């Protein structure tokens, strides 16, 4: 079966660093995606990992360990606008994505 | 480039009524997806099209939901009859057809069934 786990909620303060973890168990694996979703808006693409290691893109980085079925999204220099839901998603055999339930991040001043 | 277009933005219907949603994907994207997102959860795939053929509809409740993609471009998703538990945001997404191509989502249709 498919199982993607993320923490439900996290809080942090402006300027801090936060790490959002994701573990997955899927029948196939062709990549892991992270999306950001602000309340009432569409999910927007943040990052993609298919090989083990760290991918860095500005303030956001994403890490993957395929052997452990584990990924994390690292957000640096947090800003208020980073308050959103962060969705971990796995691509199995087709190009469709299977999403976790999402982690709601609240950034306070 | 223009994004994924969806309409309507909001819809309120009574249970047992029918409703239809429309989606126009990004130009050149062969693959189109419909997802259902219930409040507080991640999106759940309902159906995936490649051009005008169905790739995966295993999670589509076929007794009440139907979808089509005419001419491999626009798509419609229909619910008939609606149930209270169908209240959700229906997201349409499209992508190119290779491994690291991300999905691009429309703004969704928020459906409330009363």
Task: Describe, in plain words, how this protein is organized in 3D.
The complex is a heterodimer of chains A (109) and B (114). Chain A has 109 residues and is mainly β. Chain A has no helices and eleven strands. Chain A has strands at residues 3-5, 9-13, 18-25, 32-37, 44-49, 53-57, 60-65, 70-75, 84-91, 97-99, 103-108. In chain A, strands 2, 4, 5, 9, 10 and 11 form a six-stranded mixed sheet that branches. In chain A, strand 6 (53-57) and strand 7 (60-65) form a beta hairpin. The termini of chain A are far apart. The mean pLDDT of chain A is 96. Chain B is an all-beta fold and 114 residues long. In chain B, 0% of the residues lie in helices and 49% in strands. Chain B contains no helices and eleven strands. In chain B, strands 2, 4, 5, 6, 9, 10 and 11 form a seven-stranded mixed sheet that branches. The model of chain B has no long low-confidence stretch (mean pLDDT 95). Chain A binds chain B through residues 4, 30-31, 33, 41-45, 48, 50, 87, 89, 91, 94-102, and chain B through 4, 31, 33, 35, 40-45, 48, 55-56, 91, 95, 97-108.
Order of helices and strands of chain A: EEEEEEEEEEE
**Straight-line N-to-C gap of chain A:** 41 Å
Q: DSSP strand (E) fraction of chain A?
A: over 45%
Percent in strands of chain B? over 45%
What is the 3D shape of chain A?
A: globular
């Amino acid at each position: 079966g498919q199982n993607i786990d993320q923490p439900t909620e996290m809080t942090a303060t402006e300027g801090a660093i936060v790490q959002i973890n994701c573990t997955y168990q899927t029948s196939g694996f062709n990549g892991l995606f992270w999306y950001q979703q602000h309340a009432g808006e569409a999910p927007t693409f943040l990052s993609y990992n298919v090989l083990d290691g760290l991918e860095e893109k500005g303030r956001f980085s994403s890490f993957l360990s395929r052997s452990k079925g584990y990924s994390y999204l690292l957000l640096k220099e947090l800003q208020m606008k980073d308050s959103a839901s962060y969705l971990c998603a796995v691509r199995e055999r087709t190009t469709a994505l299977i999403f976790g339930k999402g982690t709601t991040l609240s950034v306070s001043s | 480039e223009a994004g994924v277009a969806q309409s309507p933005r909001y819809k309120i219907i009574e249970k047992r009524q029918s409703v239809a949603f429309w989606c126009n994907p990004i130009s050149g994207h062969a693959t189109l997806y419909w997802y259902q997102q219930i409040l507080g959860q991640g999106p759940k795939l309902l159906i995936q099209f490649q051009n005008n053929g169905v790739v995966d509809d295993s999670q589509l409740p076929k007794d009440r939901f139907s979808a089509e993609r005419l001419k491999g471009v626009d798509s419609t998703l229909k619910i008939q009859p609606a149930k209270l538990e169908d209240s959700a945001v229906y997201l349409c997404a499209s992508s190119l057809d290779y491994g690291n191509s991300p999905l691009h989502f429309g703004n969704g249709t928020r459906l409330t069934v009363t």
